[in-house]
Design goal:
alpha+beta, two-stranded antiparallel ribbon, two-stranded antiparallel sheet, 5 helices, 40% helix, 11% strand
Length: 205
Amino acid sequence: MRFTQANIEDYLRQHMARRLEEWLNVLTVRVQNKWQEYDKGEYTEHYAETGATVTRRGKMFCAAVFSGLGAYILEYGSGTEMTLSTVDEIGQFGNPDLESYLMSSGFNKMREARGYTILGRKKGDKIHRPNGSDYYSSGNYENLDLQRASTIKKAKHQLKDYIPQQALHIIENEFIAMIPEMDEELEALTTLAIDTIVTESFTLP
């Protein structure tokens, strides 16, 4: 085996891609454990998957995909506690899905003028719950503030206030906590890879 820069680069790409995928798997497990800790049996629609690949040109792509309304609420909050700044605006701890959520059919446009509080929907509106199920609104509390539901006088029975979920930013916090571990291991892996290439290059057949 000849000792070349290409050998080193190929070796590093293959090993780092594999290790980074393993780190992403660790990240998703940590995130899912935190979600389960905080979902209260209510915000249970949360999913995570990972993948990594190296292209023919040697470019490495690794990704972790998180989805589900429960995940969105745990990450970025709900009601008046929802994160209303995007990543472009504030960077770290911004809400990357804010614009797409506000433009989606699942968002009640009436909330924008009411400080984003949770409002009752009109009769027949399909509502997707953060546990993954759907139901249709009765319309009994259309445009009424459900975060102050206990004050609704026309309610047939005493209602409980909807308590908005604070943004926990679990994904970002877990990733930040993992960075020092990754840096240390990747540095060691790079050193090992170079040592291995050099050793193999000068080994007689």
